[in-house]
Amino acid sequence: xxxxxxxxxxxxxxxxxxxxxxKPIDAWAAVPDAGKAQIIGTIFIAELVTESRGVHYTKGxxxxxxxxxxxxxxxxxxxxxxxxxxxxxxxxxxxMIAIMSFISASNIPGSVPALIGNPAF
Length: 121
What we know:
By secondary structure, this protein is an all-alpha fold. The chain is built from four helices and no strands. The longest helix is centred in the last third of the chain and has 30 residues, at 78-107. It is extended and about 50 Å long. The chain starts with 15 loop residues before the first helix and ends in a 14-residue tail after the last helix.
């Protein structure tokens, strides 16, 4: 199972196409343990790096550069930039809520009233 894998191949026997036909929990169960360890390890390292810096961004510290890469915004008003960064964070939070709603609707029938009757769930 070692070797080079090309886009669309998670391992020699699991592909994105085979996972796309499954429910999220079943798809996660089909990912090999080494793949799960890589995903969780990468997330852990990213969280460790961004969360261990001084004052947290939710408490007035600078925003993580992974979320907002260092781009030259010197010609943008600082207040305007803060508003746009705040909106971007709120959009990300809303996206996370939406994903959790889809996962809930897929695994617990009737848990999300807006998605009742949708054939995808």
